[in-house]
Design a protein that fits this description.
single chain, five-stranded parallel beta sheet, 5 strands, 39% helix, binds zinc ion
Length: 262
């Protein structure tokens, strides 16, 4: 297999589904996770378990000082994580959970990693439908980044421009849940809550959107099932168990499932 892709793997359900789309399209995965000073470690544990589940060729966890700049409820404990306001409608201001220039920074690292390992594609789980109003989750931004990478990298000027694939960009959260389920994404190994409690808080924007997605898809979120509180904590062990299951499931999976267009 010579199709390599860098996948930005945060530990959330969107990036896990994006990784599953990449796998199902025959890419060899180079997973990239950032420890950028987020409020809790759960999504990092989940990212490690997911990288193992998806049999990533490599998984890099980069520690970057984005959180030291502050400016976001996700990285600055002095700023409170707001409760959900019923979903973003387009008219609300950008919420306090926006991390300044996060995807611009993370994609830049992804481009550097891709160029280093010879990957021609970067997968990102950005979603522009049921999202919280973040400007760096829009297709205009992703296309502009692709263009910047084309102009500013060796592979770009050598005629091998990097592609940025955001397969979830135009999907509703319910569609993400359905797509993920069809690709056997282990949602129990994903963490979405902005707050890092033992269980998801069910009040923040991210919990709200996730719950709405599962409800509309007519599915039960395994993270909310009784006794699942330990799952994110024990993701390492769980990941190993699911890895064996995933190996079986991969065998019977149809190739090319999951659109990559944005
Ligand atoms: Zn929450």
């Amino acid at each position: 297999m010579d199709k390599r892709a860098v996948v930005l793997l945060s530990g959330g359900m969107d990036s896990a589904t994006a990784a599953a789309v990449a796998r199902s399209n025959g890419f060899e995965l180079y997973a990239l996770t950032f420890d950028y000073g987020q409020r809790h470690r759960k999504e990092l544990w989940c990212a490690r378990a997911l990288a193992r589940f998806f049999k990533a060729r490599e998984h890099r966890v980069l520690r970057i000082g984005l959180g030291k700049l502050g400016g976001s409820a996700l990285t600055d404990r002095a700023i409170e994580v707001p409760d959900a306001g019923g979903g973003w409608t387009g008219g609300r201001p950008i919420p306090a959970t926006y991390v300044p220039a996060r995807n611009l920074v993370l994609l830049s690292f992804a481009a550097a990693y891709a160029e280093t390992v010879g990957a021609g594609t970067v997968f990102i789980g950005a979603n522009a439908v049921d999202y919280s109003g973040y400007p760096d989750c829009r297709s205009e931004f992703l296309r502009a980044f692709e263009e910047a990478a084309r102009l500013g990298t060796k592979c770009g000027v050598s005629g091998r421009p990097l592609r940025v694939e955001a397969p979830l960009l135009r999907l509703s959260k319910a569609q993400v849940v359905r797509l993920g389920a069809s690709l056997l994404v282990p949602f129990d190994l994903t963490w979405s809550c902005y707050r890092g409690g033992k269980r998801p808080c069910r009040r923040c924007d991210s919990c709200h959107l996730r719950a709405k997605g599962f409800e509309e898809a007519g599915m039960v979120d395994p993270v909310l099932e009784e006794g699942s509180g330990r799952k994110a904590q024990g993701a390492r062990d769980e990941g190993a168990r699911r890895k064996a299951q995933g190996a079986k499931a991969q065998g019977g999976r149809r190739k090319g499932q999951g659109g990559m267009r944005r």
